[in-house]
Amino acid sequence: MKENPNSLGSIEPAANTVMPQHRTQIQTTQADNLLERIIDHQGTLPPLLGSISGVYRGQAVTILREFHGYGVWFAVYEGLVQHVVKMEGKKRSEIESWKFAVCGGLAGELLWLLSHPLDVIKSKMQSDGFGNDQKYKTMREAIRQTWRSGGVSGLFEGIGPALLPAVPVSAGTFATVEVRKMLSNGDGMPETLEI
């Protein structure tokens, strides 16, 4: 991991499927209020818990999305930062924090633009019904049906709400990490943060 710290982002998806799946199923239940939706969802838990495939429905596409998405996120961010370092002829610790934020924001947008189709498929699989109500038995089937019914726009359904928080969240995340690294390394406060 020390040689390639970006590989850490690929480990997280293993724990990232079960709870979001149930949240998605509760959100898409037809009941009028949250309590009714939770109670309605409880009826689906026994069959879910009886089979691994039910509990981990959408796991493969989630892992694919996370592996791909966070790989893009870190690679784009690092590529942009290295470009800034080279263009300005400075050490990384001399770069202003707002430039890290801009690099992070751009990386966040690209993360969601490239991984959103997989997120759509994941959500469709995780919110799918059970038994006779199940539409998607495999990831391939979910992709095929989504493509048939909506084409490219079907794969990018809901992209707006995903892109809106991407810039500020990614910008804040990467700028905070860089500033924290500088402080830990004894490089002092970046110019844009000095008081």
Automatic annotation (TrEMBL):
Residues 1-23 are annotated as: Disordered. Gene3D superfamilies: Mitochondrial carrier domain (1.50.40.10). Solcar repeats lie at residues 95-183. One of its GO terms (biological process) is mitochondrial L-ornithine transmembrane transport. It comes from the Eukaryota. It is a multi-pass membrane protein. GO terms for molecular function: L-ornithine transmembrane transporter activity. Its main location: mitochondrion. Keywords: Membrane, Mitochondrion, Mitochondrion inner membrane, Repeat, Transmembrane, Transmembrane helix, Transport. One of its GO terms (cellular component) is mitochondrial membrane. It is found in: Mitochondrion membrane. Belongs to the mitochondrial carrier (TC 2.A.29) family. This is Solute carrier family member 46. It comes from Fusarium globosum. The lineage of its organism: Eukaryota, Fungi, Dikarya, Ascomycota, Pezizomycotina.
